[in-house]
Amino acid sequence: MNDHGSENNVAARLRGLTKRFTGFQLGPLDLTLEAGTVLALVGPNGAGKTTTLNCMAGLMVPDEGGTEVYGAPVHPARTEYRQDIGYVGEESGFFLRWTVRRNLDYLAGLLPGWSRERARHLSERIALPLDKPVSKLSRGNKTKLALVAAMAHKPRLLLLDEPTTGLDPVVRAEVLDLLWEIIEDGEHAVLYSTHVLSDINRLADELAFLRDGQIVLRTGRDELSESWRRVSFRLQQENVDLDGIVEHRRVRSEHQVITRDAEATLQQLNHLGAEAVEVARMSVDEIAVQILKEGHHVARTED
Amino acid sequence: MWRALKTEIWYFWPWLLGGLGIAAFVVIVLSVLVRFLEQGQGPPVFVIAMFPIIAGMVVSFVAQGYRIEERRARMLLAGPMTPRQLAWVTVLLPVCFVVLGILAVIPMIGLATLITGKFEASAVPMIAGFAGQFWAYAQLGPLAQESSAAHRERRTRATFVGWTAFAGAILILVASQFFMHRISGHFGFVTASVAAMGVAAVLYQGRTDFTR
């Protein structure tokens, strides 16, 4: 799999990461996340996204392989890597009966490098109700609190496990705005797991598609948009064998295909003498759906 | 570690106060009733002592449940704490609550003595027996929790060790019931409690999943 960054530019590296459960195996995963990169881990429910992030955050011990964060091996028994990680998961371990302010005060004493100033700024920026008990917060506000808690100690790597899932559109936009502001300085590496495909366009530089515990494709977002096309054409022959085709529909002589290699497909169509060729761009969301639907057909990219 | 332990005790402090408040209410009602119904006799001192100790034990179970539900390990593992320190916080919490319950025995007995005007110093060994017994019950909670976690994580040996220790502790507890007011019984309760604590702490450190 993709394993390209130089050692000192690598924020996180997964080497043969494997975790087994009854009826499911994650990995072995090999993945490199470079500093300053936002990588979206895209996959359906049960694909292994949360397990991957839990292993990277040191909350789970893999059965085989492992993770390094800025060169430090990740393991619950070790602590060197923790200051570099900010983790936002579904549950963040807060004292639910205590107020937001009290939880943040506790974290200020717990986490080395915690900046009260930054916590205050972030809380104000997203209008976090500081004097409300955590148990009384809405889902959106709980996510906001988790984001503040994950970022106030200025980690270099953010692990975000579906931070926008279940949020209403307004809160979702606020959370995405905040994330965008945080990562636009280019200093943070972000691994962002999601099955909300519309988030991808906003944040991700690169995408890794996870399906049944395996990464079926890792690619750049722009590269993906450039190579995938929906092509319709007219051709008399019934069976058309084209390279890079992931979906093919035909009504009489009208064909409609989805290709992951538009250039090759168009050359072949030209060679076959296809008529009325029309090429349409696909959104990243549409492409992602195709990849996850047809994951077993998609070749893995090697950089 | 001590900071985390102190914070947890502080977090569950309202439950402990509530539990001790209920215990005090029961002690007062019982003392008044027995005084009037039994022509000046008070309730046995060991019965008075049971209520605050039980309150401490119940709060330790409440704390265990809430810490699992609130996924506390996730927060603490974001900081510089190691699984070993987390394990000690988990197994020391029941001791702390039971000890606080035992400390509350003194004012409870004082309260009952004020109402009934009677005090039996001879009940102290029996009170110690009850304290040891309830401490052992409180310590069985984390042991059962860690044995279940080991089973969930498919750590066969740890599961076997955990449930064997649990069964062993129960057997010691049952045997010690017959010697409640004697040193041998007290020794049995302490042995069961310390063994449950130690095994739970070791199992916790061997966890492969700290998300729950």
Give a structural overview.
The complex is a heterodimer of chains A (about 300) and B (about 210). With about 300 residues, chain A is α/β, with parallel strands linked by helices. In chain A, about 30% of the residues lie in helices and about 30% in strands. In chain A, the strands form three sheets. In chain A, strands 6-7-8-3-9-10 form a six-stranded mixed sheet, with helices on both faces. In chain A, α3 (about 115-125) packs antiparallel against α4 (about 140-150). The longest helix of chain A is centred in the middle third of the chain and has 15 residues, at about 170-185. Chain A starts with 9 loop residues before the first strand and ends in a 10-residue tail after the last helix. Mean pLDDT of chain A is about 85; it is low at about 1-5 and about 295-303. Chain B is mainly alpha-helical. In chain B, about 80% of the residues lie in helices and about 0% in strands. Chain B contains eight helices and no strands. In chain B, α3 (about 45-70) runs parallel beside α6 and α6 runs parallel beside α8 (about 185-205). The longest helix of chain B is centred in the middle third of the chain and has 34 residues, at about 85-115. Chain B is globular. The interface between A and B is medium-sized, with 28 and 26 residues.
Please describe the structure with a list of short key phrases separated by commas or semicolons.
heterodimer; A: 303 residues; alpha/beta; 6-stranded mixed beta sheet; 4-stranded antiparallel beta sheet; 30% helix; elongated; disordered N terminus; B: 212 residues; mainly alpha; 82% helix
SSE arrangement:
The complex is a heterodimer of chains A (303) and B (212).
Chain A lengths: L9 E12 L2 E11 L3 E5 L6 H8 L7 E6 L2 E2 L11 E4 L11 H11 L5 H10 L13 H13 L5 E5 L7 H15 L5 E6 L3 H6 L2 E6 L2 E7 H7 L1 E6 L10 E7 L2 E6 L2 H11 L2 E7 L2 H10 L10
Parallel strand pairs in A: 3-8, 3-9, 6-7, 7-8
Antiparallel strand pairs in A: 1-2, 1-4, 4-5, 9-10, 11-13, 11-14, 12-13
Helix pairs in contact in A: 3-4
Chain B lengths: L1 H10 L1 H25 L7 H25 L2 H5 L6 H34 L7 H29 L3 H22 L5 H23 L7
Helix pairs in contact in B: 1-5, 2-3, 2-5, 3-5, 3-6, 5-6, 5-8, 6-7, 6-8, 7-8
